[in-house]
Amino acid sequence: MEVKVVQNVMKANDSVAEDNRKFLEAHHLAAFNVMASPGAGKTTLLMATIDRLKDRVRLGAIEGDTASQVDADKVSTTGVPVVQINTGGGCHLDAPMVREALEALPLDELDAVIIENVGNLVCPAAFALGETVNVVILSVPEGDDKPYKYPGMFVRADVVVISKIDLLPYLDFDVEAFKKLVLSVNPKVEFFELSCKTGEGVDAWCDWVADFTAKAKAESEA
Amino acid sequence: MEVKVVQNVMKANDSVAEDNRKFLEAHHLAAFNVMASPGAGKTTLLMATIDRLKDRVRLGAIEGDTASQVDADKVSTTGVPVVQINTGGGCHLDAPMVREALEALPLDELDAVIIENVGNLVCPAAFALGETVNVVILSVPEGDDKPYKYPGMFVRADVVVISKIDLLPYLDFDVEAFKKLVLSVNPKVEFFELSCKTGEGVDAWCDWVADFTAKAKAESEA
Predict the structure, then answer these.
(1) Does the beta-carbon distance from A148 to B120 stay under 8 Å?
(2) Contact B153, B136 (CB under 8 A)
Protein backbone atom coordinates (compact mmCIF):
# COMPACT_ATOMS: atom_id res chain seq x y z
CA MET A 1 0.00 0.00 0.00
CA GLU A 2 2.67 2.44 1.05
CA VAL A 3 4.86 1.54 -1.92
CA LYS A 4 1.91 2.00 -4.25
CA VAL A 5 1.44 5.59 -3.11
CA VAL A 6 5.14 6.27 -3.59
CA GLN A 7 5.06 4.77 -7.07
CA ASN A 8 2.07 6.90 -8.00
CA VAL A 9 3.87 10.01 -6.78
CA MET A 10 6.91 9.07 -8.89
CA LYS A 11 4.79 8.39 -11.95
CA ALA A 12 2.94 11.71 -11.57
CA ASN A 13 6.29 13.49 -11.22
CA ASP A 14 7.73 11.76 -14.29
CA SER A 15 4.74 12.76 -16.34
CA VAL A 16 5.08 16.45 -15.36
CA ALA A 17 8.84 16.20 -15.96
CA GLU A 18 8.21 14.91 -19.48
CA ASP A 19 5.85 17.81 -20.03
CA ASN A 20 8.48 20.26 -18.70
CA ARG A 21 10.97 18.78 -21.16
CA LYS A 22 8.66 19.53 -24.10
CA PHE A 23 7.87 22.98 -22.68
CA LEU A 24 11.61 23.80 -22.46
CA GLU A 25 12.20 22.48 -25.96
CA ALA A 26 9.35 24.61 -27.31
CA HIS A 27 11.12 27.62 -25.79
CA HIS A 28 14.50 26.45 -27.17
CA LEU A 29 15.95 26.38 -23.67
CA ALA A 30 18.55 24.14 -22.03
CA ALA A 31 17.95 23.35 -18.36
CA PHE A 32 20.81 22.37 -16.04
CA ASN A 33 19.76 20.47 -12.91
CA VAL A 34 22.59 21.11 -10.43
CA MET A 35 22.72 18.73 -7.48
CA ALA A 36 25.19 18.47 -4.59
CA SER A 37 25.59 18.19 -0.83
CA PRO A 38 24.95 21.29 1.27
CA GLY A 39 27.91 23.65 0.95
CA ALA A 40 29.52 22.01 -2.09
CA GLY A 41 29.50 25.37 -3.86
CA LYS A 42 26.39 25.29 -6.05
CA THR A 43 25.50 28.97 -5.61
CA THR A 44 29.11 30.11 -5.84
CA LEU A 45 29.58 28.26 -9.15
CA LEU A 46 26.28 29.63 -10.43
CA MET A 47 27.39 33.20 -9.61
CA ALA A 48 30.77 32.65 -11.32
CA THR A 49 29.06 31.13 -14.36
CA ILE A 50 26.59 34.02 -14.68
CA ASP A 51 29.43 36.51 -14.37
CA ARG A 52 31.63 34.92 -17.04
CA LEU A 53 28.85 34.12 -19.49
CA LYS A 54 26.91 37.39 -19.20
CA ASP A 55 27.79 38.46 -22.77
CA ARG A 56 27.46 34.99 -24.31
CA VAL A 57 24.48 33.17 -22.75
CA ARG A 58 21.24 34.65 -21.41
CA LEU A 59 20.85 32.69 -18.18
CA GLY A 60 17.95 32.41 -15.78
CA ALA A 61 18.10 30.69 -12.40
CA ILE A 62 15.81 28.66 -10.16
CA GLU A 63 16.95 28.35 -6.52
CA GLY A 64 15.71 25.41 -4.47
CA ASP A 65 15.99 25.49 -0.69
CA THR A 66 14.12 23.95 2.24
CA ALA A 67 13.84 27.43 3.79
CA SER A 68 14.92 31.05 3.26
CA GLN A 69 15.70 32.90 0.07
CA VAL A 70 19.29 33.91 0.76
CA ASP A 71 20.49 32.17 -2.40
CA ALA A 72 17.94 33.86 -4.63
CA ASP A 73 18.78 37.22 -3.04
CA LYS A 74 22.46 36.59 -3.73
CA VAL A 75 21.88 35.51 -7.33
CA SER A 76 19.50 38.40 -8.06
CA THR A 77 22.37 40.84 -7.44
CA THR A 78 23.85 39.62 -10.75
CA GLY A 79 20.84 41.00 -12.63
CA VAL A 80 19.69 37.68 -14.12
CA PRO A 81 16.05 36.64 -13.58
CA VAL A 82 15.82 34.29 -10.60
CA VAL A 83 12.95 32.46 -8.90
CA GLN A 84 13.22 30.92 -5.43
CA ILE A 85 11.47 27.63 -4.71
CA ASN A 86 11.03 27.19 -0.99
CA THR A 87 10.18 23.52 -0.42
CA GLY A 88 8.96 24.08 3.15
CA GLY A 89 11.27 21.43 4.55
CA GLY A 90 11.09 19.12 1.53
CA CYS A 91 14.39 17.47 0.66
CA HIS A 92 14.36 17.83 -3.14
CA LEU A 93 12.75 19.73 -6.00
CA ASP A 94 10.10 18.01 -8.09
CA ALA A 95 8.76 18.58 -11.58
CA PRO A 96 5.57 20.50 -10.60
CA MET A 97 7.60 22.95 -8.47
CA VAL A 98 9.97 23.54 -11.37
CA ARG A 99 7.10 24.04 -13.81
CA GLU A 100 5.68 26.79 -11.63
CA ALA A 101 9.09 28.43 -11.36
CA LEU A 102 9.71 28.18 -15.12
CA GLU A 103 6.43 29.96 -15.80
CA ALA A 104 7.53 32.80 -13.53
CA LEU A 105 10.68 33.38 -15.65
CA PRO A 106 10.81 35.47 -18.87
CA LEU A 107 11.60 32.34 -20.89
CA ASP A 108 11.62 33.99 -24.32
CA GLU A 109 14.46 36.25 -23.21
CA LEU A 110 16.61 33.32 -22.04
CA ASP A 111 18.91 30.70 -23.58
CA ALA A 112 19.24 28.45 -20.55
CA VAL A 113 17.99 27.95 -17.02
CA ILE A 114 20.21 26.74 -14.21
CA ILE A 115 18.21 24.95 -11.52
CA GLU A 116 19.94 24.74 -8.15
CA ASN A 117 18.40 21.76 -6.39
CA VAL A 118 18.15 21.39 -2.59
CA GLY A 119 21.53 20.56 -1.05
CA ASN A 120 21.25 16.80 -0.67
CA LEU A 121 23.21 13.92 -2.20
CA VAL A 122 20.33 11.44 -1.93
CA CYS A 123 16.75 12.51 -2.71
CA PRO A 124 17.11 14.90 -5.69
CA ALA A 125 18.56 12.02 -7.75
CA ALA A 126 15.17 10.28 -7.70
CA PHE A 127 13.11 13.15 -9.12
CA ALA A 128 13.27 14.12 -12.79
CA LEU A 129 12.52 17.80 -13.36
CA GLY A 130 12.48 17.86 -17.16
CA GLU A 131 16.11 18.97 -17.19
CA THR A 132 18.30 18.72 -20.28
CA VAL A 133 21.34 17.66 -18.29
CA ASN A 134 22.19 16.59 -14.74
CA VAL A 135 25.23 18.16 -13.10
CA VAL A 136 26.56 16.84 -9.79
CA ILE A 137 29.06 18.92 -7.83
CA LEU A 138 31.34 17.16 -5.34
CA SER A 139 33.59 19.42 -3.27
CA VAL A 140 36.92 17.89 -2.32
CA PRO A 141 36.47 18.32 1.47
CA GLU A 142 33.59 15.80 1.23
CA GLY A 143 36.05 13.01 0.48
CA ASP A 144 36.74 10.78 -2.52
CA ASP A 145 34.63 7.86 -1.22
CA LYS A 146 31.23 9.44 -1.85
CA PRO A 147 30.31 7.37 -4.96
CA TYR A 148 30.39 4.26 -2.72
CA LYS A 149 27.82 5.70 -0.38
CA TYR A 150 25.64 7.75 -2.73
CA PRO A 151 25.76 5.76 -5.97
CA GLY A 152 22.25 6.88 -7.04
CA MET A 153 23.43 10.46 -7.43
CA PHE A 154 26.49 9.54 -9.48
CA VAL A 155 24.51 7.15 -11.69
CA ARG A 156 22.18 10.03 -12.56
CA ALA A 157 24.96 12.52 -13.37
CA ASP A 158 25.82 13.51 -16.93
CA VAL A 159 28.58 15.78 -15.65
CA VAL A 160 30.49 15.72 -12.37
CA VAL A 161 32.17 18.93 -11.23
CA ILE A 162 34.96 18.48 -8.69
CA SER A 163 34.93 21.77 -6.78
CA LYS A 164 37.14 23.62 -4.26
CA ILE A 165 40.30 22.11 -5.75
CA ASP A 166 42.28 24.95 -4.11
CA LEU A 167 41.88 22.93 -0.89
CA LEU A 168 43.51 19.79 -2.34
CA PRO A 169 46.92 20.51 -0.71
CA TYR A 170 45.29 20.36 2.74
CA LEU A 171 43.22 17.21 2.18
CA ASP A 172 43.67 13.52 1.39
CA PHE A 173 41.44 13.61 -1.68
CA ASP A 174 42.63 11.40 -4.54
CA VAL A 175 41.16 12.91 -7.73
CA GLU A 176 42.01 9.93 -9.93
CA ALA A 177 40.60 7.41 -7.43
CA PHE A 178 37.41 9.48 -7.20
CA LYS A 179 37.00 9.60 -10.98
CA LYS A 180 37.60 5.87 -11.26
CA LEU A 181 34.93 5.25 -8.63
CA VAL A 182 32.40 7.46 -10.44
CA LEU A 183 33.18 5.80 -13.77
CA SER A 184 32.65 2.38 -12.20
CA VAL A 185 28.96 3.24 -11.65
CA ASN A 186 28.58 5.58 -14.64
CA PRO A 187 31.07 5.14 -17.50
CA LYS A 188 29.68 7.99 -19.65
CA VAL A 189 30.14 10.85 -17.21
CA GLU A 190 32.19 13.95 -18.06
CA PHE A 191 34.38 15.68 -15.43
CA PHE A 192 35.36 19.25 -14.64
CA GLU A 193 37.81 20.24 -11.91
CA LEU A 194 37.66 23.80 -10.66
CA SER A 195 37.99 26.32 -7.88
CA CYS A 196 35.78 29.40 -7.78
CA LYS A 197 38.23 30.88 -5.28
CA THR A 198 41.28 30.82 -7.57
CA GLY A 199 39.29 30.68 -10.83
CA GLU A 200 41.17 27.57 -11.96
CA GLY A 201 39.05 25.47 -14.31
CA VAL A 202 36.06 27.82 -14.27
CA ASP A 203 36.54 28.95 -17.89
CA ALA A 204 36.52 25.37 -19.18
CA TRP A 205 33.28 24.75 -17.30
CA CYS A 206 31.71 27.95 -18.67
CA ASP A 207 32.76 27.08 -22.21
CA TRP A 208 31.03 23.74 -21.81
CA VAL A 209 27.84 25.41 -20.49
CA ALA A 210 27.84 27.81 -23.47
CA ASP A 211 28.50 25.04 -26.01
CA PHE A 212 25.92 22.73 -24.47
CA THR A 213 23.33 25.53 -24.50
CA ALA A 214 24.03 26.34 -28.17
CA LYS A 215 23.79 22.68 -29.11
CA ALA A 216 20.50 22.19 -27.22
CA LYS A 217 19.09 25.31 -28.91
CA ALA A 218 20.12 24.10 -32.38
CA GLU A 219 18.59 20.69 -31.73
CA SER A 220 15.31 22.15 -30.52
CA GLU A 221 15.12 24.32 -33.63
CA ALA A 222 15.97 21.50 -36.05
CA MET B 1 -4.81 11.48 1.33
CA GLU B 2 -1.11 11.67 0.63
CA VAL B 3 -0.45 13.70 3.77
CA LYS B 4 -2.44 11.22 5.80
CA VAL B 5 -0.18 8.39 4.72
CA VAL B 6 2.90 10.44 5.58
CA GLN B 7 1.46 11.29 9.00
CA ASN B 8 0.76 7.64 9.67
CA VAL B 9 4.33 6.74 8.76
CA MET B 10 5.62 9.44 11.12
CA LYS B 11 3.33 8.30 13.92
CA ALA B 12 4.41 4.69 13.49
CA ASN B 13 8.04 5.78 13.55
CA ASP B 14 7.55 7.88 16.68
CA SER B 15 5.95 4.98 18.47
CA VAL B 16 8.87 2.64 17.68
CA ALA B 17 11.29 5.44 18.63
CA GLU B 18 9.59 5.74 22.02
CA ASP B 19 9.92 2.00 22.44
CA ASN B 20 13.62 2.18 21.48
CA ARG B 21 14.10 4.87 24.11
CA LYS B 22 12.70 2.57 26.84
CA PHE B 23 14.71 -0.35 25.48
CA LEU B 24 17.94 1.69 25.66
CA GLU B 25 17.08 2.90 29.15
CA ALA B 26 16.45 -0.67 30.29
CA HIS B 27 19.96 -1.50 29.08
CA HIS B 28 21.39 1.64 30.74
CA LEU B 29 22.68 2.85 27.41
CA ALA B 30 23.12 6.33 25.96
CA ALA B 31 22.50 6.64 22.21
CA PHE B 32 24.04 9.45 20.16
CA ASN B 33 22.27 10.19 16.86
CA VAL B 34 24.97 11.82 14.71
CA MET B 35 23.67 13.73 11.70
CA ALA B 36 25.53 15.76 9.05
CA SER B 37 25.99 16.40 5.34
CA PRO B 38 27.91 13.83 3.33
CA GLY B 39 31.61 14.20 4.02
CA ALA B 40 31.32 16.38 7.13
CA GLY B 41 33.48 13.91 9.03
CA LYS B 42 31.02 11.70 10.90
CA THR B 43 33.01 8.48 10.52
CA THR B 44 36.34 10.19 11.15
CA LEU B 45 35.04 11.70 14.40
CA LEU B 46 33.56 8.35 15.40
CA MET B 47 36.92 6.63 14.85
CA ALA B 48 38.76 9.32 16.86
CA THR B 49 36.18 9.07 19.66
CA ILE B 50 36.44 5.28 19.85
CA ASP B 51 40.22 5.50 19.93
CA ARG B 52 40.39 8.07 22.72
CA LEU B 53 37.63 6.58 24.86
CA LYS B 54 38.58 2.92 24.51
CA ASP B 55 39.61 2.61 28.17
CA ARG B 56 36.78 4.78 29.53
CA VAL B 57 33.57 4.05 27.62
CA ARG B 58 32.45 0.78 26.02
CA LEU B 59 31.11 2.03 22.69
CA GLY B 60 29.10 0.29 20.00
CA ALA B 61 28.33 1.76 16.59
CA ILE B 62 25.52 1.70 14.06
CA GLU B 63 26.46 2.87 10.56
CA GLY B 64 23.71 4.17 8.28
CA ASP B 65 24.36 4.45 4.54
CA THR B 66 22.24 4.38 1.40
CA ALA B 67 24.61 1.79 -0.04
CA SER B 68 27.89 -0.07 0.73
CA GLN B 69 29.42 -0.97 4.05
CA VAL B 70 32.73 0.86 3.76
CA ASP B 71 32.05 2.81 6.95
CA ALA B 72 31.21 -0.28 8.99
CA ASP B 73 34.32 -2.01 7.64
CA LYS B 74 36.41 1.00 8.66
CA VAL B 75 34.89 1.20 12.14
CA SER B 76 35.18 -2.54 12.74
CA THR B 77 38.97 -2.24 12.50
CA THR B 78 38.82 -0.48 15.89
CA GLY B 79 37.49 -3.64 17.51
CA VAL B 80 34.20 -2.14 18.74
CA PRO B 81 30.96 -3.93 17.80
CA VAL B 82 29.43 -2.31 14.73
CA VAL B 83 26.30 -2.95 12.68
CA GLN B 84 25.74 -1.52 9.19
CA ILE B 85 22.26 -0.40 8.17
CA ASN B 86 22.01 -0.23 4.42
CA THR B 87 18.89 1.81 3.62
CA GLY B 88 18.78 0.70 -0.02
CA GLY B 89 18.70 4.26 -1.31
CA GLY B 90 16.66 5.65 1.61
CA CYS B 91 17.72 9.10 2.72
CA HIS B 92 17.58 8.67 6.51
CA LEU B 93 17.51 6.07 9.27
CA ASP B 94 14.22 5.36 11.00
CA ALA B 95 13.33 3.87 14.36
CA PRO B 96 12.54 0.31 13.15
CA MET B 97 15.89 0.08 11.34
CA VAL B 98 17.69 1.21 14.48
CA ARG B 99 15.77 -1.27 16.62
CA GLU B 100 16.92 -4.14 14.43
CA ALA B 101 20.50 -2.89 14.57
CA LEU B 102 20.38 -2.44 18.35
CA GLU B 103 19.25 -6.04 18.78
CA ALA B 104 22.25 -7.18 16.74
CA LEU B 105 24.67 -5.48 19.19
CA PRO B 106 25.92 -7.01 22.49
CA LEU B 107 24.08 -4.33 24.46
CA ASP B 108 24.92 -5.61 27.92
CA GLU B 109 28.63 -5.19 27.18
CA LEU B 110 28.19 -1.55 26.14
CA ASP B 111 27.82 1.87 27.78
CA ALA B 112 26.77 3.82 24.72
CA VAL B 113 25.88 3.45 21.05
CA ILE B 114 26.87 5.99 18.44
CA ILE B 115 24.47 5.98 15.51
CA GLU B 116 25.88 7.48 12.33
CA ASN B 117 22.88 8.59 10.30
CA VAL B 118 22.80 8.82 6.49
CA GLY B 119 24.76 11.85 5.24
CA ASN B 120 21.95 14.34 4.71
CA LEU B 121 21.17 17.70 6.30
CA VAL B 122 17.42 17.45 5.66
CA CYS B 123 15.57 14.15 6.11
CA PRO B 124 17.21 12.59 9.21
CA ALA B 125 16.00 15.56 11.28
CA ALA B 126 12.40 14.43 10.82
CA PHE B 127 12.81 10.88 12.15
CA ALA B 128 13.26 10.17 15.85
CA LEU B 129 15.26 6.99 16.47
CA GLY B 130 14.89 6.76 20.25
CA GLU B 131 18.24 8.52 20.69
CA THR B 132 19.30 10.09 23.98
CA VAL B 133 20.90 13.06 22.25
CA ASN B 134 21.10 14.58 18.77
CA VAL B 135 24.49 15.66 17.50
CA VAL B 136 24.83 17.67 14.29
CA ILE B 137 28.25 18.03 12.68
CA LEU B 138 28.86 20.98 10.36
CA SER B 139 32.23 21.03 8.62
CA VAL B 140 33.60 24.49 7.94
CA PRO B 141 33.96 24.03 4.15
CA GLU B 142 30.15 23.79 4.00
CA GLY B 143 29.85 27.47 4.87
CA ASP B 144 28.46 29.41 7.83
CA ASP B 145 25.07 30.07 6.20
CA LYS B 146 23.71 26.53 6.56
CA PRO B 147 21.30 27.24 9.47
CA TYR B 148 19.40 29.59 7.13
CA LYS B 149 18.84 26.84 4.60
CA TYR B 150 18.50 23.77 6.81
CA PRO B 151 16.87 25.13 9.97
CA GLY B 152 15.08 21.82 10.72
CA MET B 153 18.38 20.10 11.39
CA PHE B 154 19.70 22.82 13.68
CA VAL B 155 16.41 23.05 15.59
CA ARG B 156 16.70 19.34 16.33
CA ALA B 157 20.33 19.47 17.52
CA ASP B 158 21.28 19.23 21.19
CA VAL B 159 24.94 19.59 20.28
CA VAL B 160 26.57 21.12 17.20
CA VAL B 161 30.12 20.05 16.37
CA ILE B 162 32.01 22.44 14.10
CA SER B 163 34.50 20.14 12.33
CA LYS B 164 37.60 20.49 10.11
CA ILE B 165 38.62 23.72 11.84
CA ASP B 166 42.17 23.13 10.53
CA LEU B 167 40.78 24.42 7.21
CA LEU B 168 39.59 27.76 8.68
CA PRO B 169 42.65 29.70 7.43
CA TYR B 170 41.75 28.79 3.83
CA LEU B 171 38.02 29.58 4.05
CA ASP B 172 35.67 32.49 4.73
CA PHE B 173 33.85 30.72 7.57
CA ASP B 174 32.87 33.02 10.44
CA VAL B 175 32.58 30.78 13.53
CA GLU B 176 30.88 33.42 15.68
CA ALA B 177 28.37 34.32 12.95
CA PHE B 178 27.58 30.62 12.49
CA LYS B 179 27.01 30.10 16.22
CA LYS B 180 24.78 33.16 16.41
CA LEU B 181 22.70 31.84 13.50
CA VAL B 182 22.31 28.42 15.15
CA LEU B 183 21.37 30.01 18.46
CA SER B 184 18.73 32.14 16.72
CA VAL B 185 16.79 28.96 15.84
CA ASN B 186 17.89 26.89 18.87
CA PRO B 187 19.06 28.84 21.94
CA LYS B 188 19.87 25.75 24.04
CA VAL B 189 22.44 24.14 21.78
CA GLU B 190 25.97 23.33 22.96
CA PHE B 191 28.98 23.75 20.63
CA PHE B 192 32.25 21.94 20.08
CA GLU B 193 34.95 23.05 17.65
CA LEU B 194 37.45 20.47 16.54
CA SER B 195 39.74 19.02 13.90
CA CYS B 196 40.35 15.29 13.72
CA LYS B 197 43.37 16.05 11.53
CA THR B 198 45.25 18.13 14.10
CA GLY B 199 43.44 16.71 17.14
CA GLU B 200 42.46 20.20 18.33
CA GLY B 201 39.27 20.11 20.38
CA VAL B 202 38.81 16.34 20.14
CA ASP B 203 39.59 15.72 23.83
CA ALA B 204 36.93 18.20 24.96
CA TRP B 205 34.38 16.45 22.74
CA CYS B 206 35.39 13.01 24.07
CA ASP B 207 35.19 14.22 27.67
CA TRP B 208 31.66 15.41 26.96
CA VAL B 209 30.71 12.02 25.40
CA ALA B 210 32.10 10.20 28.45
CA ASP B 211 30.37 12.52 30.94
CA PHE B 212 27.09 12.42 29.07
CA THR B 213 27.20 8.60 28.94
CA ALA B 214 27.91 8.36 32.70
CA LYS B 215 25.07 10.76 33.46
CA ALA B 216 22.60 8.87 31.23
CA LYS B 217 23.63 5.60 32.89
CA ALA B 218 23.17 7.03 36.38
CA GLU B 219 19.76 8.41 35.44
CA SER B 220 18.60 5.11 33.97
CA GLU B 221 19.68 3.30 37.12
CA ALA B 222 18.05 5.80 39.47
Answers:
(1) no
(2) yes
Q: What is the pTM of this model?
A: 0.92
Alpha helices in chain B (DSSP H): 2-26, 42-53, 70-76, 95-103, 146-149, 151-156, 175-185, 202-221
Q: What angle do CA A149, A65, A101 make, to 5 degrees?
A: 120
Per-residue pLDDT of A41-95, as tens digits, reads 999 999 999 999 999 999 999 999 998 888 999 999 999 999 999 998 899 999 9
Please tell me what DSSP assigns to residue A168. G
- Chain A, chain B: beta-carbon pairs less than 8 Å apart: 121
From B93's Cα to the closest Cα of chain A, the distance in A is: 13
**CA of B36 to nearest chain A CA: how many angstroms apart?**
10
Cα–Cα nearest to B162, from B117, B199, B193, B196: B193
B34 to each of B97, B121, B143, how far by Cα in Å?
15, 11, 19
With CB atoms and an 8 Å threshold, state whether A70 touches B145: yes
**Using the beta-carbon criterion (under 8 Å), do B39 and A68 form an inter-chain contact?**
no
